[in-house]
Amino acid sequence: MTNTVRDILLAFVRVHVLHHAVSERVYGAGMAEELARHGYQLSPGTLYPLLHRLEQDGLLVSESEVVAGKVRRYYVATELGRSALIELKPRLAELVGEALPEDKAHAPARTRKPRIPR
Ligand SMILES: [Zn+2]
């Protein structure tokens, strides 16, 4: 994987983290699982600094909580994080619409088998 592709994927990951953090508390291991579900294999050495950086930039805020005897750091989006996502979403939609026109609206309808009345 080239550095450019990696950078782009990490940007997707940031958007994904923000997306979840606006509606729920997220934490490193849980987010790693969620991202794995979407096909991203991130090492803690990548994900934790990414979360930390989002907090440093004021998009997330964290609090620590002891869960099953271990300290867990939960993150939620700040107002700045929320407005960043609001700013990003139409651009994301625009890009998807242009780069993936087939996937946009009609793909499911096209693959659907016509129903033959009997
Ligand atoms: Zn997700």
Q: Which helices and strands occur, and which strands form pairs?
A:
Blueprint: H1 3-21, E1 26-27, H2 28-37, H3 44-56, E2 60-67, E3 70-77, H4 79-99, H5 101-104, H6 107-111
Antiparallel strand pairs: 1-3, 2-3
The chain binds zinc ion.
Descriptive report:
The protein has 118 residues and is an alpha+beta fold. It has a single domain, classed as Winged helix-like DNA-binding domain superfamily/Winged helix DNA-binding domain (Arc Repressor Mutant, subunit A), CATH 1.10.10.10. The protein is built from six helices and three strands. The longest helix has 21 residues. The chain is globular. The termini are far apart. About 5% of the residues have low confidence. The structure holds zinc ion. Zinc ion (ZN) binds next to α1.
- Structural class comes to alpha+beta
Q: What is the succession of H and E elements?
A: HEHHEEHHH
Q: What is the CATH architecture descriptor?
A: Orthogonal Bundle
CATH class wording: Mainly Alpha
Short description:
It contains six helices and three strands, in the order H-E-H-H-E-E-H-H-H. With 118 residues, it is α+β, with helices and mostly antiparallel strands.
Name its key features.
alpha+beta, 118 residues, binds zinc ion, 3-stranded antiparallel β-sheet, 6 helices, Arc Repressor Mutant, subunit A, 3 strands, single chain
